[in-house]
Structures are given as structure tokens and as C-alpha cells.
């Protein structure tokens, strides 16, 4: 068994499961007799040499906690451009005398990690994000919890929808992908679900509301923050945060006569304790990362493919976000249960 020194960092937005993954990585590295250094605040911290040793005591009870004990950030520090940021990170990697760097992050992190690998840093990455939009993995940690929190919100909104005979709108995060909205709508028994992958028509929503909802006098609509109307899509416009949700809450009462109210869930879905499923998956990703370091397999991301953990080359992952295919089982199930997709 050769002694190794591993660096770990969390980059991009926080999400649930990061601490469970840090715990998995650290405990399994310590079991090998290796040393573990936690880099603070993402690549920014690496560039600026902000770090501390991770011990058993630091991680043994953190699987159930939200956020990241290492802190996180977007970007590469004081550097003016990517090239300088990469150079600063490579320099720190050498100065810290690390043998490998494990990066936990979303699409942006995968991309920056691939640059580090190309610059000679032995890198392994893990897939985290509530958006579930990382290429070549069926799932990312953080997603299950974010769906769970969104469903809890829908369950609570339903009581007001029923009591006041309203159409309650819930806007959820997800960036350019509709995974979170689709998962929440299906599990939360929503009536309407609008996702970026399927530009919606207001007329179709109005028609569906008249036919299916008006008599019942209560409904739930989930809209992804990246959803876009067919009109704006045709004009090539990029969705503006909250704009579509505001348009819906203004237009629906006018066009259907039904009262409507908007709730923006935002960061609530990204914070707090992870579900058991996210804790387990994140821990497994962490221990798999150490296995890959042991085997000397670098420039790869740990991915879940058909419930098997595999290593996929970073260059295939980076800059290639995974949207929901319109014939995905999640979408097919929504169609089969007559959830309106806005078309
Ligand atoms: O990628 C996760 C996510 O929460 C997206 O759903 C959201 O659009 C974005 O991050 C918000 O990023 P920030 O916290 O940097 O504004």
C-alpha cells in the first residue's frame, strides 16, 4: 500500500449530499492510510492555497448535513481568465504535494476539472447538482432531495389550492433542464408541468384548464425556472429568471377566470438535510473515487449508469449538459396520466 496525499474540493452551487460524499472519500482514504486535505471554497480556494487537513473527527457524523463543510464558490480566484486560473491551481496542487485531486461539482466544475487534467493534474470528479443535468450519469446527488423538498411544497400548496379554489403555481430551479420540475410534478400529482425542453403555449394551458380543472376548482402547476413559451422560443430568446412564472400568474386568471398565486421555491430545494437515497449514493460515489485513485484512473467522473458506478472520461462530460429527452419515461408517464405539458 503506497502512502498518498489526496486533495478534495467542492465547487459550484451547494447541494445536498456533498458532505456525505466528503465523508465517503475521507473515511475510505484514511482506511488506506492516506492523508486528506480539504481545499476551501472550490477552485478559488485551490488557486489561493486555502486548505486544512480532513480527519476522522471532521467527517464521521456529517452525512446527514446540508451544504458543504469545505465551502464552495464559482470561478478560479483572482485570475483574469481561465488559463491563469488553471495555472494558479496547478501551482497550488504542486506546492501542496498532492497526488490526486477529487472535485465535487456540476457541469462547470467538470469542465474546469478537465482543463486541470489536461494540464497534468490527476483528477477524479463526482456528479453533484439538484439539476440532474450532468452528461453520462443517470442521476446526480442532490437531485433526489430537491425533488423531495419540491413535493413537500406541492403537498402544502394543495391545501390552499383546495380551500381557496385556486390554481397554485410553483416555480422550481433546474437551470436549462426540466428534471426537477418533472420529478416534482409527477410525485406531487401536479396538473400542469412546464419544462424548458418543451416550449409551452398559453392557449394550450388555458384550454386544458377550462376542460379539466375549472369544475374541480383547484390545481397545481409546476414551472421550471428555464421554461419558455413557444413564442419566445421562436424568437430565439433566452428565458429570464422568474419571467415566465410571473407571466403565467398574471395571465391565467385573466384568461380562465381562476384565481392563481405564485410560489418560488428557489434555494429552499437546495438546502438542508439530504434524503437517505442521496446520502447513500453520495457516499458510494466518494468511495468509488478512492477506488479509481488507487487504480491510477484519472481524468474521469464517477457516473451511475444502469445502477452501476462507472468511470466516464471528463472530456465526454464537460460542457455537454443533459436535458430530458422528450420521450423519457418521466415525460411519457406525465403524458399517460394526463398531466398537461403546455402543448
Ligand atoms: O445548478 C444549481 C442551481 O441551483 C440552478 O438550479 C440555479 O439556476 C443556479 O444553481 C443558481 O445559481 P447561483 O446560486 O449561483 O445563483
TrEMBL record:
GO terms for molecular function: 6-phosphofructokinase activity; AMP binding; ATP binding; fructose-6-phosphate binding; identical protein binding; metal ion binding; monosaccharide binding. Residues 6-293 form the Phosphofructokinase domain. Its cofactor is Mg(2+). It comes from the Bacteria. Transmembrane segments: none annotated. One of its GO terms (cellular component) is 6-phosphofructokinase complex. Keywords: Cytoplasm, Glycolysis, Kinase, Magnesium, Metal-binding, Transferase. Pathway: Carbohydrate degradation; glycolysis; D-glyceraldehyde 3-phosphate and glycerone phosphate from D-glucose: step 3/4. GO terms for biological process: canonical glycolysis; fructose 1,6-bisphosphate metabolic process; fructose 6-phosphate metabolic process. InterPro entries: ATP_PFK, ATP_PFK_prok-type, Phosphofructokinase_dom, PKF_sf. Belongs to the phosphofructokinase type A (PFKA) family. NCBIfam families: PRK03202.1. This is 6-phosphofructokinase. It comes from Ignatzschineria indica.
Amino acid at each position: 500500500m503506497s502512502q498518498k496525499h489526496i486533495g478534495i474540493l467542492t465547487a459550484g452551487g451547494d447541494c445536498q449530499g456533498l458532505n456525505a460524499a466528503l465523508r465517503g472519500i475521507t473515511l475510505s482514504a484514511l482506511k488506506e492510510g492516506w492523508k486528506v486535505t480539504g481545499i476551501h471554497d472550490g477552485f478559488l480556494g485551490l488557486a489561493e492555497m486555502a486548505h486544512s487537513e480532513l480527519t476522522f473527527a471532521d467527517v464521521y457524523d456529517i452525512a446527514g448535513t446540508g451544504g458543504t463543510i469545505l465551502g464552495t464558490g464559482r470561478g478560479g480566484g483572482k485570475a483574469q481568465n481561465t488559463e491563469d486560473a488553471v495555472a494558479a491551481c496547478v501551482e497550488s496542487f504542486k506546492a501542496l504535494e498532492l497526488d490526486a485531486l477529487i472535485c465535487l461539482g456540476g457541469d462547470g466544475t467538470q469542465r474546469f476539472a478537465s482543463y486541470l487534467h489536461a494540464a497534468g493534474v490527476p483528477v477524479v470528479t463526482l456528479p453533484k447538482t439538484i439539476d440532474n443535468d450532468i452528461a453520462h450519469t443517470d442521476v446526480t446527488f442532490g437531485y433526489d432531495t430537491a425533488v423531495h423538498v419540491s413535493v413537500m411544497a406541492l403537498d402544502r400548496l394543495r391545501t390552499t389550492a383546495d380551500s381557496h379554489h385556486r390554481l397554485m403555481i410553483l416555480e422550481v430551479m433546474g437551470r436549462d433542464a426540466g428534471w426537477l420540475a418533472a420529478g416534482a410534478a409527477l410525485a406531487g400529482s401536479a396538473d400542469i408541468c412546464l419544462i424548458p425542453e418543451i416550449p409551452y403555449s398559453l392557449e394550450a394551458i388555458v384550454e386544458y384548464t377550462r376542460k379539466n380543472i375549472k369544475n374541480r376548482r383547484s390545481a397545481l402547476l409546476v414551472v421550471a425556472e428555464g421554461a419558455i413559451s413557444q413564442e419566445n422560443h421562436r424568437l430565439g430568446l433566452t428565458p429570464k429568471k422568474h419571467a415566465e412564472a410571473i407571466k403565467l400568474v398574471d395571465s391565467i386568471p385573466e384568461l380562465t377566470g381562476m384565481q392563481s398565486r405564485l410560489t418560488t421555491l428557489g434555494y429552499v430545494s437546495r438546502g438542508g438535510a439530504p434524503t437517505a437515497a442521496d446520502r447513500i449514493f453520495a457516499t458510494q460515489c466518494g468511495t468509488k473515487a478512492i477506488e479509481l485513485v488507487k487504480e491510477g484512473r484519472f481524468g474521469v467522473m464517477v457516473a451511475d449508469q444502469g445502477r452501476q458506478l462507472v468511470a466516464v472520461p471528463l472530456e465526454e462530460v464537460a460542457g455537454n449538459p443533459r436535458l430530458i429527452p422528450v420521450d423519457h419515461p418521466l415525460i411519457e408517464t406525465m403524458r399517460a396520466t394526463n398531466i398537461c405539458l403546455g402543448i
